[in-house]
Amino acid sequence: MITPKDESELATAVAEAQGPLRISGGDSRGLTGTGAQLSVAGLSGVSLYEPGALTMVAAAGTPVAEITAMLETERQQLAFEPADLRGLLGRGGAPTIGGAFATNSSGPRRVQAGAARDFLLGVRFVDGRGEILKNGGRVMKNVTGYDLVKLMAGAHGTLGVMSEVSFKVLPRAEFTGTLVWNDLDWAESLSVFQGAMNSPFDVTGAARLPGANGTSKTLVRLEGFETSVLYRLGQLQSRMPATPVDKLVTDAGESDALWKAVRDVAPFHDKAGAVWRSSVKPSDMLRVVDQVSGEHLLDWAGGLIWSMVDPAVDLRAALASVGGHSTLVRPGAGQDDVPRFEPQPAPLAALAAGLRAQFDPRGILNPGLMG
Amino acid sequence: MEMPQPDQQVIAKKASLIAALHEVLPQDAVISDPMETRAYECDALTAYRCPPMLAVLPSSTEEVSDVLRICHAQGVPVVPRGAGTSLAGGALPTADCVILGVARMNDVLETDYDNRIIRVQTGRTNLSVTGAVEDEGFFYAPDPSSQLACAIAGNIAMNSGGAHCLKYGVTTNNLLGVTMVMMDGRVVEIGGAHLDSGGLDLLGVICGSEGQLGVVTEATLRILHKPEGARPVLIGFDSNEVAGACVSDIIKSGILPVAIEFMDRPCIRACEAFAKAGYPDCEALLIVEVEGSAAEIDDQLSRIIAIAKAHNPVELREARDADQAGRIWLGRKSAFGAMGQINDYMCLDGTIPVSTLPEVLRRIGDLSKEYGLEVANVFHAGDGNMHPLILFNANQEGQLETCEALGAEILKLCVEVGGCLTGEHGVGIEKRDLMLHQYSAQDLEAQLRVKDVFDPKWLLNPAKVFPLSVTAARRQPF
Ligand SMILES: Cc1cc2nc3c(=O)[nH]c(=O)nc-3n(C[C@H](O)[C@H](O)[C@H](O)COP(=O)(O)OP(=O)(O)OC[C@H]3O[C@@H](n4cnc5c(N)ncnc54)[C@H](O)[C@@H]3O)c2cc1C
């Protein structure tokens, strides 16, 4: 394993690489493909934190836990709720901030606050030539030149190895309230999501957790100051007379546990089966659960569907007419050859290949991972 | 501002180009009369003008594709244009180019409230997107002050923001999908009604690419339900430092205002003289707006007022109703008009880390004295996006040049303290030559390589964003 200690060592490692590199942060997601492992875990530490400007700059290998703990001292947070998939994937390691952005990992608050890519303000990275490059900065509004920051977010290391990220943080809400409905059918869950999202009440989560024996919990989250949250919880309920709420959770710990379970896909931990993550138009969720047999966890008001299915099921084929895209997050037996990422239409695949050829002309950065 | 010499070989093709365009466009969509092409000679950066060789006004994605295929085959540069309100010269033509205007493409293609999206042709104006959904209680969040006139096309190209983006984000955070025509005429669909588009984030790099990667013809935008209400509070301070500290404290407190606007004394005085909004004559004014129900607004405003009081404000005025709210916003909203009344002005757009606000304002004051031109500051304080307005007299020999030199110094200052050259207006031609202050040659090269992929012949808006010296080799006629 190659373990550079700083950015210039990282650049040298990439420049001198003789073959493919498998890039890792905390290695909590596992690697696919062949080649030497290049870990950025050695590039660690927060170099700037300005709570009054809501910004932080950290080395890419800094553990998310370290960042969260530091933010906690100022009652702030990573509002995009990056997932911790160790439980789902049965892995160890410590998720890093670089990994969270490289995978554009966005949890329940995606519907209101945005995705990881929306919080990433600037990057320093090493491209496939071994050159150190930067884009963006540490300010919240920046349209100076092309936004390569967005391109790096979600590129899974295939365009460059991030060495440093600067990002926006947000205050942590004083109070959280979660409405819980038990065992709704799918259409009822969708109408709860729509009722919640199409309201003025600033919903910060709309999800559905599967439980044992076909049970489920449909969840809607509100955050803010206590009186305001209580007011909005009341308003929301009165707007949904047809689906009375089963439980109102106002205990911080209990709410937190529910939303962590959504974020980290807890119901599928320690269970066999392939796990797919599909991003679809929210109302298409009904078609997905209809066309794919298996267990489903919903997030993003129905727009994000985690499906645990028999590895023999070709989920992409089943959803061919639905639109959106699916990622194979946890392959089951015999799925080694199934592409992790949805193959793209030819014109987009050509653009992506063109960008890869520019940023990684030797094709050594996680080759084949994204197509 | 230098522009490349027009390519005479391209200009020589004018007649054959017109003939080819007439085969794919209606008669009135091809504009070649020099009297009429003058309508496209500039955008809102009016100091620079040059009529294009031709202008075309297609009505559909297919027509845009036909136009680009023809121009691509003949090696003719194309400058896309929305409403022409760019303050950076993004839509400035060259004498050998075709202006491709999307103004005729302004239909709403789909509204889907269940999924909270609207799909529009990109010639549609920003405000009329909200207009199409407000009866159902929805709005499109990014709200540039030019929203009555500017088009979604330009908003996407410039990644435009507005006063309310502190809470709702800028264009890129509210854009879900595009239909885009590449320079060779190929049509690509990126993203859609789902929240995250698959593969590399091409949408992210297209937004803000200033018309250099493709012509965006349709867009899927996220719409949001309107809040129950909104009201501002006006807070005056006798020092910029204290006002800056107050902004920081508000942000840290956990309240997320939709807008925090900041005006300094020169700006307050000019606005007051123009709009008579009853602003106090003080060093710094903040307008902080929050949203929610009446009770929620009261609660948030009282928290903000408590924070402000700890900083000994010279004025505190809470809006109790829509009328009072209107009066508080009146002065701020007329800032540009007020400046225009007094003088010619140049509007800058740098962003700085919020913590450096007092230092930057002080140094802008010093620079203003040094160059002998007055500068008024109005800006989105919550996110550090400054709009210093330099007042000058265009009719006085040399003042435009002095003004530009001062502007460049101010933007370099923004970069020096950890900020950037442009927060929401874009680089265009205006800040092109300053790019090497923010980025190394290699950093810029990485951006040029992106254009190489989308537009290998460098025909789309080629003379913008990057210093001409940096792009010269790529722009050579093929
Ligand atoms: C009074 C005033 C106030 C303003 N306030 C704000 C503000 O608050 N916030 C803010 O962000 N901006 C503001 N602006 C700047 C300007 O309005 C924005 O940049 C706006 O988005 C430009 O839109 P447009 O349609 O006029 O674009 P244009 O000026 O026509 O073009 C702008 C750029 O977009 C490209 N382009 C146009 N159409 C397309 C297309 N179809 N495909 C690809 N590229 C295309 C052009 O080539 C050019 O580079 C203001 C301008 C004025 C005059």
Helix and strand arrangement:
The complex is a heterodimer of chains A (371) and B (478).
Chain A: H1 7-16, E1 21-24, E2 36-39, E3 46-50, E4 55-59, H2 64-72, E5 76-77, H3 86-89, H4 97-102, H5 110-113, H6 116-119, E6 120-126, E7 132-136, H7 148-152, E8 161-168, E9 170-171, E10 175-182, H8 186-197, E11 205-210, E12 216-224, H9 226-238, E13 247-249, H10 252-263, E14 274-279, H11 285-291, E15 295-299, E16 304-309, H12 315-318, E17 325-330, H13 346-359
Chain B: H1 8-11, H2 14-24, E1 30-31, H3 34-37, E2 54-56, H4 61-74, E3 78-81, E4 98-101, E5 108-112, E6 117-121, H5 126-133, E7 138-139, H6 152-158, H7 165-168, H8 171-174, E8 175-181, E9 187-191, H9 202-206, E10 215-222, E11 224-225, E12 230-237, H10 240-252, E13 259-264, H11 265-275, E14 284-291, H12 294-309, E15 315-318, H13 322-333, H14 335-342, E16 344-347, H15 357-371, E17 375-380, E18 385-392, H16 399-416, H17 435-438, H18 441-454, H19 468-475
Helix pairs in contact in B: 2-4, 10-15, 11-14, 15-16
Flavin-adenine dinucleotide (FAD) is lined by residues 43-44, 79-87, 90-91, 102, 122, 144-146, 150-151, 153-155, 157-158, 160-162, 210-211, 215-216, 336, 424-426, 461 of chain B.
Query: What's the helical proportion of residues of chain A?
Result: 25-40%
Strand content of chain A: 15-25%
- The SS-based structural class of chain B is alpha+beta
CATH topology of the largest domain in chain B: Uridine Diphospho-n-acetylenolpyruvylglucosamine Reductase, domain 3
> What count of structural domains of chain B?
4
- In the sheet with the most strands of chain B, the strands line up as 15-12-14-13-17-18-16
Distance between the termini of chain B: 25 Å
Query: Distance between the terminal alpha carbons of chain A, to the nearest Å?
Result: 24 Å
Low-confidence stretches of chain B: none
Distinct helical segment count of chain A:
13
Strands of chain B, total number: 18
